[in-house]
Amino acid sequence: MNWRNISLWMDQLDDPLQARPSLQHDIQADVAIIGAGYTGLWTAYYLKRQAPQLRVVIVEAETAGFGASGRNGGWLMGNLLGEDRLMASLPANERKASFDLLHAIPDEVAEVVAREGIDCDLRKGGVLYCAARYPEQEVRLRDYLEHLRELGLGEDDYRWLSPSELAAQLRVTNAYGALYSPHCATIQPARLVRGLARSVEDMGVELYELSPVIDWQPGQVRTAQARVTADWVVPAIEGYAATLSPLGHYQLPVQSLIVATEPLPTDIWAGIGLERGQAFSEFSRQVTYGQRSRDDRLIFGARGGYRFGGRLRSDFNLTEEELGLRRYLMGEIFPQLRNVRFSHSWGGNLGMARCFQPHMLRDSRNRIALSGGYGGEGVGASNLGGRTLADLILGRDSELLRQPWVLSDSPISRLRRWEPEPCRWLGYNAIIRSFVHEDEVLANPRSPAWRRRLAQALAARMESLMG
To answer: Among 77, 108, 264, 423, which has the highest number of CB atoms less than 10 A from its own CB?
Structure first.
């Protein structure tokens, strides 16, 4: 199986990418984990760190890193999707403690990769949220900064950069300013997930690949050849929740699509910046994001799509239209790259929870532990999820469990369900179309003021419906 075609990241591996043995015989374990992506591997790692006597078994349908863990944009964020809404009602001291916990995620991962000798190009250069292309972005970004200040986050967490200050780190066309946060690192994500897989095996975790789960229930996971009976089951499948009922009611697969340029020469990078491994995002609802790889490629992604019925996408050969949108957006930000060659293009399925609300849950009655709904921010959030699930399973009392995204003793059915089709498909596409329309109107300097206001109001209204 040519797993190197999954993404640039998998293509760059020195790993021979040979499959581990599949599950052939029934076994008994303390914890059975479905999926060898970040969530499953981090959960196994922290379980074995705290309770090395446990028998932990992971079953993976393909190979470690086949899913979003080997396909993402490489942002290791000290954030959680929707964190501001989740923490808004907390007392100020508790809210600060929760933010501190999130902001420490990149440092926690850095500590682990140093301890385990995992070379994943981790560089903590922070993140730049840029207002560029049209002035309305600056207004929205300054409003967002004011909101962060109201939550108690200060200059050490988010700092406004003038256009000249931004240019010292990143040079984009028509910059109006940016927000800089230090709480983000960039990585080579496939090297992290493959390194974690080797590390947990060294700790005694049993990892079976090419073993797709065909049925699961409390205390049992079954593949076509054998089954694992366990005290605890952890379905760590994120964007693939639709494959294991009833999880598909609570997490929908949506796609994010990414391109990578060929390695760019020194003079081009001298005109762009990003010398310290910073992540960057243009502050539009198109959700563009990127980083400079270790081998001097520009990695650039943008919002993907949703398929009717929550169907997974397996073919990530990007269409001309999909490539064209990313080329257009990248060229608007970096005109010198309008004609650059893309060496790789790829995408992945990620999990989106209703109301954009990630969850970390222990169903004590059915002995199920679940973390997911990261909404495209799972590289860092999965580390937090793995630590949290380990404490939930072990019954430890820790700060991790006293967070508003943790449901310590709740059935899965407590999670909010997505609406039935065709409501989901119609709603998603209407929302995305409003974002595209807004971007087209605002990016055109000849658009009259009334039309600009109308496009923004419609997109803002549609965005509110997603939450």
So the answer is: 77
One domain, residues 307 and 347: yes
Question: Element (H or E) spanning 30, and its range?
Answer: strand 27-34
Let me know whether 67 and 214 are in one domain: yes
Q: Are residues 171 and 258 in the same domain?
A: yes
318 shares a domain with 462: no
**Whether residue 49 is found in the same domain as residue 137:** no
Q: Burial, 164: exposed, middle or buried (Cβ in 10 Å; 0-12, 13-18, 19+)?
A: exposed
Note the residue count of the chain: 467
Interhelix angle for 105-116 vs 189-202, to 10°? 60
Q: How far from each other are the two terminal CA atoms of the chain, in whole angstroms?
A: 39
- Give the separation between CA 340 and CA 264, rounded to whole angstroms: 9
The pLDDT tens digits for 198-241 are 999 999 999 999 999 999 999 999 999 999 999 999 999 999 99
DSSP 254-320: EEEEEEEEPPPPHHHHHTTB-TT--EEEE-STT--EEEE-TTSPEEEEEE----GGGPPP------H
Is 197 contained in some domain?
A: yes
Last residue of a domain, one of 333, 351, 369: 351
In this structure, are strands 56-59 and 27-34 parallel, antiparallel, or unpaired? parallel
Where in the sequence is the domain holding 372, given as residue range(s)?
3-72+189-248+355-414
pLDDT by residue (tens digit) across 338-389?
A: 999 999 999 999 999 987 889 999 999 999 999 999 999 999 999 999 999 9
